[in-house]
Amino acid sequence: MVGGHGKENYEPALRAAAADAGFPVKFLGDVPDEQLGPIYERADIFAMTSMPHKLSVEGFGLVYLEAGAHALPVVAHAIGGVPEAVIDGETGLLVPPDDSAALTAAFAKLIGDPALCRRLGAAGQARALSHTWDAAALTLFGPPAAPADSP
Q1: CA distance linking residue 121 with residue 115, whole number of Å
Q2: In the predicted model, is pLDDT for residue 26 greater than 60?
Q3: Within 10 A of 128 (CB to CB), how many other CB atoms are there?
Q4: Are 92 and 82 spatial neighbours (Cβ–Cβ below 8 Å)?
Q5: SS (HEC) of 97-118
């Protein structure tokens, strides 16, 4: 399944690549947030291979945590902030950008090892559930100051 949501329209190029893939690829188009849950539940692996584009690169990658919350192992490029969201070998597999052989090997590894998929998915779910706004504020600002004594 391929979902799309972005500034650029990559669907024609992806459809051309999918035609040569040798297996069926379903294109979903833009999917509203409220419809993502059932799609995640049907998936076995989540992949989003971010690439540098113009002056932009992937930031933290909240979508990887979202996939992790659904206990999906992740395949992603090790670029920008992605390694902060996906821990290589723990919650997913990171590969270098522009290395199609490594990307193919990552998929083959997960497809051939259901136990690894379950382990990465469970770790990704635990990691996703540990990321709360309270934890983020504590990381950024430290513990709250003790209240000043009132006279």
Answers
A1: 10
A2: yes
A3: 20
A4: no
A5: CCCHHHHHHHHHHHHCCHHHHH
Q: What pTM value is reported for the model?
A: 0.81
Burial of 85 (0-12, 13-18, 19+ CB in 10 A): buried
Cα separations in angstroms, 73 against 8, 68, 104, 134: 26, 7, 15, 25
Least Cα distance to 89 among 76, 70, 71, 104 occurs for: 76
- Is-contact 47 75, C-beta < 8 A? yes
- Element housing 47 (H / E): strand 46-48
Distances (CA, A) of 102 to 37, 68, 76, 95: 29, 21, 11, 6
